[in-house]
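User: My collaborator sent over this chain with a note saying "see what the structure looks like." That's all I know about it. Can you take a look?
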Amino acid sequence: MTKVIVSCMDYRLSEEIEKKAGKDALIFRNAGANVNGLKDVLKGIKADEVIFMPHTDCAALKLGYSAIKEGKSVDPEVEKTLVSQFRGKEFQTLQDLEKLNAKLGEEALRQIFPNAKIKTELIDVTKIKIPERKPVVYLLKPESRYNKEVIGAYVIQATKKEAVSGDLKIA
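Assistant: Without extra context I'll predict from the sequence alone. Here is the result:
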């Protein structure tokens, strides 16, 4: 049985992800728990269970919100992989955008993994233990787990660096 976890690279989430992962889950993390940006790397996986873990107070979604609602410019790659999926969609607040991201991500995961059990957990960061932030970004493979050095850092996880190049710009 293959379990996949998709979440955001935010430093606050590593311990929550570890709790769900166990030792065998494949973990994919990018800016905003952006399934759209991970579609190509996820398509080759035969998953039985997928846990989608976006979160509140997401900096990547704040970037998307400011690009759409306030007209701020973003890097073209970030526009393509993250922001464009929300253009033309109905939302008023950042919280609306966070819920929309959870909805769109789950829908995309259901298309990618039609036979898998899909579960979405929107993590409220005000209700979790937040580690001390470290000014570091780690690029790890999906099977990697976190040691004390990684907890508190931003973590991007994917099979190919090319799949997360826009996320590295955001980080």
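A starting point for your reply to your collaborator: The radius of gyration is 15 Å.
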